Amino acid sequence: MASKQQDREERRRSMAARIAALSTIITILPASMLAGWLLGNFVLDRLLRTFPWGSIVFTLVGAGAGFFQIIRILAPKRDNQE
Predict the structure, then answer these.
(1) Number of domains in the chain
(2) 32 in a domain, yes or no?
(3) What is the DSSP string of 12-70?
(4) Does 79 fall in a domain?
(5) Residue 82, domain member (yes or no)
(6) pLDDT score at 80
(7) Does 52 reside within a domain?
(8) Is the CB of residue 69 less than 8 Å from the CB of residue 28?
(9) Which domain holds residue 17?
């Protein structure tokens, strides 16, 4: 009896962990693009007077960083312990 209850509890925790991982994926790309735009606009463009190129470049860099993070989250974990 106890093992059935433990199995249900483990499945419930596993589902919660998956939901948490997926909810972070939703926010990673917009947040990284926003961070890139803020750095490009308020730091690079204002200091070097290169508007809009700093904003464009750093927004694209932020998008690349966001996609990289999403791939890292979705990639299967590898155990290199042999």
Answers:
(1) 1
(2) yes
(3) HHHHHHHHHHHHHHHHHHHHHHHHHHHIIIIIIIHHH--TTHHHHHHHHHHHHHHHHHH
(4) no
(5) no
(6) 67
(7) yes
(8) yes
(9) 2-74
